[in-house]
Amino acid sequence: MRQQVADGDTTGGFYARIRELYETARRPSLRHIAAKAYCGKTTVSKLLNGQGIPERETTLKIIESLGGCREEWYVQVDEARAAQGRIQRTKGRGLRDQHHLPLIASTDVVGRAPALAATREKIAPFKAAATTEVEWLRSCGVVA
Questions:
Q1: What sign does the dihedral 77-80-84-86 (CA atoms) show?
Q2: DSSP state for residue 129 in the 8-state scheme
Q3: In terms of Cα–Cα distance, which of 64, 90, 89 is closest to 77?
Q4: All domains of the chain in start order, with CATH
Q5: What's the chain's Rg over C-alpha atoms?
Q6: What is the DSSP letter of 140?
Q7: Given a cut of 80, is residue 70 above it in pLDDT?
Q8: What average pLDDT does this structure show over 122-142?
Q9: Residue 37, pLDDT score
Q10: What DSSP string runs through 8-32?
């Protein structure tokens, strides 16, 4: 818990310093900052609103476009990005990619007419015998 509070302080302080730099630069438009930093307006907006820290180089380009010194901010950007990563992992965001794993090997059937026809030929005898799904998957080579 202590580490999480420290990480929140790190990212919160970083966002506060970014907003201060933005105010010092007399609040240029997001489009102007994005053009100078060669990135999208959404990226700039998310950084200025505390919604996420982009890649190191992108963040440093945004800081430079606001008049900040790259060398002074380099370590702060790395620390804030590391803290942001730890916070996201504690929220469980690192696990969301597991929901996209296929249940069966989709390349056997999806979008391939010959493979689909071959699979139908394999299915025919099992439909007649009313076997279990696991046996069918084994016959297709999906499950060992």
A1: positive
A2: H
A3: 64
A4: 2-96 (1.10.260), 103-139 (no CATH)
A5: 26
A6: T
A7: yes
A8: 65
A9: 94
A10: HHHHHHHHHHHHHHHHHTT---HHH
